[in-house]
Design a protein that fits this description.
Blueprint: H1 4-51, H2 55-68, E1 74-80, E2 87-93, H3 100-103, H4 115-122, E3 126-128, H5 138-146, E4 151-159, E5 162-171, H6 179-213, H7 219-225, E6 229-234, E7 237-241, H8 243-249, H9 253-257, H10 261-265, H11 270-284, E8 292-298, E9 304-316, E10 319-328, H12 330-373, H13 376-392, H14 399-430, E11 437-439, H15 441-451, E12 461-465, E13 471-473, H16 475-492, E14 499-506, E15 523-528, H17 560-570, E16 575-579, E17 585-589
Parallel strand pairs: 12-14
Antiparallel strand pairs: 1-2, 1-5, 3-4, 4-5, 6-7, 6-10, 8-9, 9-10, 11-13, 14-15, 15-17, 16-17
């Protein structure tokens, strides 16, 4: 049987493997969740590009989606002015949108070296992972950093094959624009470009149709010069045609007018022929049929073109006839087909990402089972045999050996607590979203404080509880948040006599990292007058296994604040801290707020 030292060494090796596996799985799950979310967002943008009635509505919807679902603090779409290369805002959204004029004055050209200038001039995607270290022009960079912006991705928008604007995305945190995310966002910018191009073409077509109806007196001139193909059909023969239709059909005007009824019908694709003739007869008989429809035509050279036709019944030379206006929509059809292809590809990629996420969850569940069962057995064995040595052979062991046994048992107990915390963090990561209930936060804080009575024995601790507004959340999880924060407050104020711990609500808290809170939103606050910490290391607070104090000074697994962060994030909130060494600490958290967390 291996000795206690070998078991400790093996336990340490397993612990290191455990930590590495947890970090790798957490990173994989987070990346897959981010990619899955952005892929779903791409589907929403594709639908907006296919359904929005005008360019402004499309751009506004895209910006709103990117800030509400894409977790950007600023989404901005600007189109370039062909006269001078300046950018004019088409739409913007996000918490930092109000400061857009400070960052990018409307109607001004971006300075050389700015990411937006590079995206437009070089027609490429530009990503800045940390604006604080970007070598671009200092005034723009300093303004962006002062506004709490930390990362940027700029995507050129192309219309008619040339850069015509830019989609700029800002986040309040670094590391948001991974390569996979940027690739999906590039597809999203292409969908926006295609939507703008289609709307431009649709607007041109509508203007042409409107111009055709403006004046009967100018009808002949407008017909001859129209961009639409216009014909009049009587007894299935073409009795009038304009040059635009001749170009669509690939014939001369004279050739079209000389066609027999059978030859004219042959210009319609065989698969669409019966439906077109049915509509013509129905229109002539006075039936109420939709005036606008689409079909395929066959040009003289045999190529197939899609046309959209708007038809009406008229009198021509005293007899009933059909007047029809044609628009060649072949390119639009190709664009729609491309959108359908992209939608199918999106569904496939979403399915793949979902399968990967489910596989990762299964691995996480298997890992949790292993932690729960396989690691506890050696711990129980280590603790049990050490206790037997202490109880049955204490007199035969020197004092140094008994101290070593005490350390072994203490290590086993600490490892057991660590396993419990890891299982709790794993449960919070993969469990269902908590169901919101109204929670009396004041009563909950007082109950938690009473439960921590054993940790105050032999100490003088003054506790104050302010007026706390009720919250919407899971009572058990919120109890865990308060228990961890108050437990830390007691632990790190152990050297004070008396110590002071307080729970309250701050209607105007200091701003958290990643951007200010929405106007009027306050935060719950837990404060102490303990040892505090250096704010330079505040970014490590809520990471698993990160400690700002030595384990021999303050016990703990290093997972308590990570659990707090996970619970608050799953409630749609943020948690952050303010402190100075030797002057205590204040922890703030919000609930029910959509953030980048």
């Amino acid at each position: 049987m291996p000795g206690p030292r070998a078991e400790v060494t093996e336990l340490q090796r397993r612990r290191a493997n455990l930590e590495a596996a947890v970090a790798e799985l957490r990173g994989t799950v987070t990346r897959l969740q981010d990619q899955n979310r952005v892929l779903a967002l791409l589907g929403e943008v594709n639908r907006a590009a296919a359904t929005c009635a005008d360019r402004g509505e499309l751009c506004r919807q895209v910006c709103r989606l990117l800030t509400l679902e894409g977790r950007c603090v600023l989404a901005w779409i600007a189109l370039s002015d062909p006269r001078g290369g300046v950018l004019r805002t088409e739409a913007a959204a996000g918490p930092a949108a109000a400061h857009l004029p400070e960052l990018h004055p409307d109607g001004a050209a971006p300075a050389p070296g700015e990411p937006l200038a590079d995206a437009l001039a070089q027609d490429r995607v530009v990503v800045v992972h940390d604006l604080r270290t970007h070598p671009g022009p200092a005034p723009w960079r300093d303004r962006a950093v002062a506004l709490g912006l930390r990362a940027l991705a700029a995507f050129p928008l192309r219309v008619q094959g040339a850069p015509a604007g830019v989609l700029a995305l800002y986040t309040g945190r670094t590391g948001r624009f991974q390569a996979e995310i940027v690739s999906i966002l590039e597809d999203m910018a292409a969908a926006v470009s295609l939507g703008i191009e289609n709307l431009r073409r649709e607007a041109e077509r509508n203007r042409a149709e409107q111009a055709l109806r403006e004046s009967e007196a100018r009808y002949r001139t407008m017909v001859e010069q129209s961009l639409q193909g216009l014909i009049v059909v009587q007894d299935l023969r073409i009795v009038f045609v304009n040059p635009a239709y001749a170009r669509i059909a690939g014939y001369s005007v004279e050739e079209l007018l000389s066609l027999t009824a059978e030859e004219a019908v042959a210009l319609i694709h065989p698969e669409d022929r019966d439906e077109v003739l049915r509509r013509v007869r129905a229109r002539l008989s006075g039936e109420d049929v939709p005036p606008k429809y689409e079909f395929r035509g066959i040009r003289r050279d045999g190529t197939v073109r899609w046309v959209e036709v708007s038809s009406s019944r008229i009198e021509f030379n005293g007899r009933p006839a059909i007047q029809a206006a044609f628009v060649d929509i072949t390119e639009r059809k190709r664009a729609e087909e491309e959108l359908r292809r992209l939608a199918g590809e999106l569904e496939r990629r979403v399915a793949e990402r979902t399968a990967e996420l489910e596989a990762a969850n299964r691995e996480l569940e298997a890992f949790t089972y292993s932690v729960s069962h396989d690691l506890r057995a050696p711990l129980r064995s280590m603790d049990g045999f050490s206790r037997i040595l202490e109880e049955d052979y204490a007199e035969a062991l020197p004092a140094e050996a008994r101290r070593h046994l005490a350390r072994i048992r203490d290590g086993a107990r600490r490892m057991g607590r660590l396993i419990d915390d890891l299982l709790e963090l794993s449960r919070l990561s993969r469990g269902p979203v908590p169901k919101a209930r109204t929670v009396d936060m004041g009563a909950l804080a007082r109950r938690v404080w009473e439960e921590l009575g054993s940790e105050r024995e032999g100490r003088r601790v003054e506790f104050s509880l302010g007026e706390l507004p009720p919250a919407q959340g899971d009572p058990d999880l919120l109890r865990q948040v308060l228990a961890n924060l108050l437990g830390n407050a007691l632990k790190f104020s152990r050297g004070r006599d008396p110590a002071h711990v307080a729970v309250g609500f701050d209607p105007s808290p200091p701003p958290p990292p990643g951007g200010p809170l929405p106007p009027g939103r306050g935060a719950y606050r837990v404060t102490d007058d303990g040892v505090g910490f250096d704010m330079r290391h505040a970014g490590m607070l809520f990471q698993a296994f990160q400690r700002l104090h030595r384990p021999e000074d303050f016990e703990g697994s290093g997972l308590g604040l990570a659990i707090v962060h996970r619970i608050v994030a799953r409630h749609g909130g943020r948690v952050w801290a303010r402190s100075e060494p030797g002057r205590g600490a204040a922890f703030y958290f919000t609930l029910g707020e959509r953030t980048d967390a």
